[in-house]
Amino acid sequence: MSLSEATGTAAADRFQRRRANAARAVEQAALRLFTQHGFDAVSVEDIATAAAISPRTFFRYFDSKDDVLLGYQRRLDTRLADALRDRPPSEGAVTALRAAFVATSTTPAEERVELLQRFRAIAASPSVQARSRGEHAAMTALVVPLVAERMGVDPQDPRPRVIAAALGAIALSAWDSWVAGAGTDDPADIIAAHLDLVVARFADLDQPSAKGPK
């Protein structure tokens, strides 16, 4: 890589970090308002004022106030796919996906209050909750090819979708249980406990394939 290319890459990295930090500040301001006033009572203008930006700047980072809440879920889905790719090739699809769900839901104690605020704001708004359930379908679509690869079968084979959809639904139910509680425990512990209730029943589909991930 030439010096000019390295300089350009470093500048692009700094820009992305600044953008991520700015979006994060907007998210935090929005969550405070949602917690204090309720999601439906807060406008984009309110969020912009609290974050000391203009509404126009808000839309540089988010398409709507719904997306302020749903951004974490999308990032979680991306992390889930990455975690699944990183699991050892010797693991079967069910074992690997279970481990990926647990790894990506692990939340440090200092981050749980904000995470609970986010999910409770979603639960309090039927429209956002409906979109959140739609994100679950997107997660399944993201994971199915990775499960199929690990099983050594075609992604159109129904088994990878059954595994991804079933474990995803169980993880979603576990998140709901965590939100309904005090939010002090690590959600990963609840998700692991929920998944372990059914993972053994998928034993026949949990054999690593010789054609699995390289």
Question: What does the model show?
Answer:
GO terms for molecular function: DNA-binding transcription factor activity; transcription cis-regulatory region binding. It comes from Rhodococcus jostii (strain RHA1). Residues 43-62 bind DNA. By secondary structure, this protein is mainly alpha-helical. It folds into two domains: 1-62, Arc Repressor Mutant, subunit A (Orthogonal Bundle); 64-207, Tetracycline Repressor, domain 2, CATH 1.10.357. Helices cover 73% and strands 0% of the residues. It has helices spanning 3-37, 44-50, 55-61, 65-86, 93-105, 112-124, 126-151, 158-180, 187-196. The longest helix is centred in the first third of the chain and has 35 residues, at 3-37. The mean pLDDT is 91.
Q: Which segments are poorly predicted (pLDDT under 50) over 5 or more consecutive residues?
A: none
Count of separate DSSP helical elements: 9
Terminal Cα span: 28 Å
Strand content: under 5%
Query: N-to-C SSE series?
Result: HHHHHHHHH
Total of domains? 2
Identify the quaternary structure here: single chain
- What is the CATH architecture term of the largest domain? Orthogonal Bundle
- Rounded mean pLDDT is 91
Shape verdict: globular
CATH topology of the largest domain: Tetracycline Repressor, domain 2
Q: What proportion of the residues is helical, as a percent range?
A: over 70%
Radius of gyration equals: 20 Å
CATH superfamily label of the largest domain: Tetracycline Repressor, domain 2
CATH class of the largest domain: Mainly Alpha
SSE-based structural type: mainly alpha
